[in-house]
Design brief:
- The structure is a single chain.
- The chain is 31% helix and 28% strand.
- The chain has 327 residues and is of the alpha+beta class.
- It folds into three domains: 102 residues, Rossmann fold, CATH 3.40.50; 147 residues, 2-Layer Sandwich (D-amino Acid Aminotransferase, Chain A, domain 1), CATH 3.30.470; 54 residues, ATP-grasp fold, A domain (Dna Ligase, domain 1, 2-Layer Sandwich).
- The strands form three sheets. Strands 6-5-4-3-2-1-7 form a seven-stranded mixed beta sheet, covered by helices on one side. Strands 12, 13, 14, 15, 16 and 17 form a six-stranded antiparallel beta sheet that branches. It has a four-stranded antiparallel beta sheet with strand order 8-11-9-10.
- The longest helix is centred in the last third of the chain and has 17 residues.
- The radius of gyration is 20 Å and the shape is globular.
- The protein starts with a strand and ends with a helix.
């Protein structure tokens, strides 16, 4: 019998449209011999199923069930591809844990931790993980520009602490640009992280749970046409993404070992994609995404294909790992 799979997409953040794209790719490539997929849109106002004719039917949040044509549909698993809140910050993970439905992303604590850039970096520092120098601000804090610059230097990056897809991120080159950049970041979040500039090759490393093993995928080298890997570079073709990355064997081993170490320190499962910059010859951790973009042009699917894993195989593995872990 086919398993009923809810593909969760959308969310409450600026990444809503990107998540819809990702969810539709999952829907397209899911193996119909094994699964009956249902596209579930998660919005602030309601959660609803969308059929192939764009007809909408509300989800019963009491047990995450669906009533169609007089029948009640229960789900065997939820494929969580919601970027940002509530799919990447632990809220949906906790909900599904409470009602006992397996979901494909990492657990709720790991999701909350990695979504919070400041907390994630603070957790990794005692393990000797190299990162940029940083400075934290909360909305309402006094802003001492000179103190910030003395800590992180110029240029630096101002980032919303809990946001993805480079929303709320600015590269600051002068003291005069600092306050406007902080205001941009506060539009996305009431917490900010300001980081020193790391100069060097930027790479993205996918680590997944594949056939029961923590597996590092081929590395992607990122070359942005813009000042950094911003929204345009990620989604509007303003970058080159080279998989596998043009790294020496030594550097490839360094960053693969570091990515795997972080995945295991944080006890992640399912998908992850973390970013690193080779600064002074050493890979420095930037951030981790536990629900990374999943369009057909996105980095993680590129890496899986380079590893010889087709998208249907990757999706099947992800669902079966989630169900196995729950049992």
């Amino acid at each position: 019998m086919k398993k009923n799979i809810a593909i969760l997409m959308g969310g409450y953040s600026s990444e809503f449209d990107i998540s819809i794209q990702s969810g539709n790719v999952v829907y397209k490539h899911l193996d119909r011999n094994l699964y009956q997929p249902y596209r579930i849109h998660i919005t602030k106002d309601s959660w609803f199923y969308v059929d192939d004719n764009d007809q909408k039917t509300n989800i019963d949040k009491n047990d995450f069930s669906l009533h169609l044509d007089g029948s009640k549909i229960n789900f065997d698993a939820a494929f969580n591809i919601v970027h940002g809140t509530p799919g990447e910050d632990g809220l949906l993970q906790a909900y599904f844990e409470l009602i006992g439905i397996p979901q494909t992303a990492c657990d709720f604590y790991q999701a909350a931790l990695t979504f919070n850039k400041r907390d994630c970096i603070s957790t990794l520092k005692p393990y000797g993980i190299p990162t940029a120098k940083n400075y934290f601000l909360n909305k309402g804090d006094a802003i001492h520009a000179k103190s910030i610059i003395n800590t992180v230097g110029l240029p630096c990056f101002v980032k919303a602490n809990k946001a993805g897809s480079s929303y709320g991120v600015s590269k600051v080159k002068t003291e005069e640009e600092l306050i406007p950049a902080i205001n941009v970041a506060y539009k996305e979040d009431d917490e900010i992280i300001i980081e020193s500039f790391l100069s060097g090759t930027e790479v993205s490393v996918g680590v997944i749970t594949y056939k029961g093993q923590d597996t590092v995928l081929p590395i992607t080298e990122i070359i942005s046409e813009n000042d950094f890997f911003d929204y345009e570079a990620k989604y509007l073709g303003k970058s080159q993404e080279i998989t596998p990355a043009r790294l020496s064997e030594v550097d490839e081993r360094k960053v693969k070992n570091l990515a795997l170490k972080i995945y295991q320190i944080l006890k992640i499962k399912g998908f992850s994609r973390s970013e690193y910059i080779f600064h002074n010859g050493e890979p420095h951790f930037v951030e981790m995404n536990t629900n990374p973009g999943f369009s057909e042009a996105s980095i993680l699917p590129q890496q899986a294909i380079a590893a010889g894993i087709s998208l249907p195989e990757l999706l099947t593995n992800t669902i079966e790992e989630a169900i196995k872990t729950e049992i």
